[in-house]
Amino acid sequence: AAMISHCGEDSIYPVVGVKLFFIDDFPAPTPEGDFSKIYDETGLSTADFYREEWWPWMLDNAKKYHLKYTGLIIETYGKQVKGPFHELSGRSARDNVVIYGRELLKAGGELGLHGYNHQSLAVAGYNQDKLGYVPWESEEDMIEATQELYRYVKSLYPDYEFRVYVPPSDILSPEGYDAVKKAVPTIKVMSSLYDGLPSEKAFYQDYKRNEDGSYEIPRISSGYVPDSFMRWSVYSLINHLGVFSHFVHPDEMFYAESADKSWADMKEGMTAFLTEIDEHYPWLTPVTASESMKYFDDFFNLDYRVVRAEDHFDLHCWNHSGEVKFLLRSEKELDHAEDCTAEPVDDDVYLIRMTGENARLVWKTP
């Protein structure tokens, strides 16, 4: 999009202008198992590592790099895919959801749903054998399990409306998609992946608003140390739609893919990545997943017209309710803006913000 925009004169296009950050499997029961890797490096048990090291660091990142977290709740890590479904977690797991959840909300974040367990809502044929998951036999079983998850979270947060769902391992069959909508009618945002290999059998989405008023808002990147290809995807989507959408898991340091990375390496990688995004794209508004809906609404509803003159540039917009943003690429030097703001964000690139219907950009003349 950025390269094509250089092919014309004074190219301009709308962007959403939001920054999202998801934490999958959080709040959730503390992962089971002996994770000597963390103890050897930090001297902390797994539970203490989350409480004393990982979560304070994440909260500090939210302040430092202007993030609003969307946390996705897991009720249990069991493999049950046939009912009846009951609450299996003990008092400690419930306390985790309450304590961490309240702290996340206090930091301006949002709570969403991830699953009754971490078994992706999909029938056979979605790489379950490769991932160690158990296929579901029917949509009815998926509905029943998701209803139990909803009962569980509502018992802890009776006045909270859960609007966001993220599928475990980003895998979701059509039956699973329908099951979530039927079990939790308040779900308005489905967030999986934007891009990837067909062989992964993941649920890939485009950004869109559905006829029922719900939204597809996929994630672009993941992990504490994004590689060069993932960073390319991040920059591409910011240039194209003005959207940053990233996710991590609390327990990624225990993954086989992280075997060659220490916790210090992961902290260093994430710090460098977030610093880069925050410095280069300060115009992205930090939002939770459901908060982003109003920004996407204006983006999807927006109509606009551009009128070019020798010494100025008129922009006419309608069908928007809030502030709308545009990226303008021009080699001309701006003299001033009328009824909008024009902020330089890169070489020959301006971010235009306007709330009204008409704006003018006046160029400097020789």
Commentary on this structure:
With about 375 residues, the chain is an alpha/beta fold. The protein contains ten helices and 18 strands. The strands form four sheets. Strands 2, 3, 4, 9, 10 and 11 form a six-stranded parallel sheet that branches. The protein has a four-stranded antiparallel sheet with strand order 1-14-17-16. α8 (about 230-240) links the parallel β9 (about 220) and β10. α6 (about 140-155) runs parallel beside α7. The mean pLDDT is about 95.
Order of helices and strands: HEEHHEHEHHEHEEEEHEHEHEEEEEEE
Largest sheet: 6 strands, parallel
Question: Low-confidence parts lasting 5 or more residues at pLDDT below 50?
Answer: none
What's the average pLDDT?
94
Give the helix tally: 10
Fraction of helical residues: 25-40%
| Secondary-structure class | alpha/beta
Rg estimate, integer Å: 22 Å
How many DSSP-defined strands? 18
In percent, how much strand structure appears in the residues?
15-25%
Shape: globular
Index terms:
366 residues, alpha/beta
Architecture blueprint of SSEs:
Elements: H1 2-5, E1 11-15, E2 18-23, H2 36-42, H3 46-64, E3 69-74, H4 91-106, E4 110-115, H5 128-131, H6 139-156, E5 164-165, H7 174-183, E6 189-190, E7 208-209, E8 215-216, E9 221-222, H8 228-241, E10 243-248, H9 263-280, E11 285-286, H10 292-301, E12 303-308, E13 312-318, E14 324-329, E15 334-338, E16 341-346, E17 349-354, E18 358-363
Parallel strand pairs: 2-3, 2-10, 2-11, 3-4, 5-6, 6-8, 9-10
Antiparallel strand pairs: 1-14, 7-8, 12-13, 13-18, 14-17, 15-18, 16-17
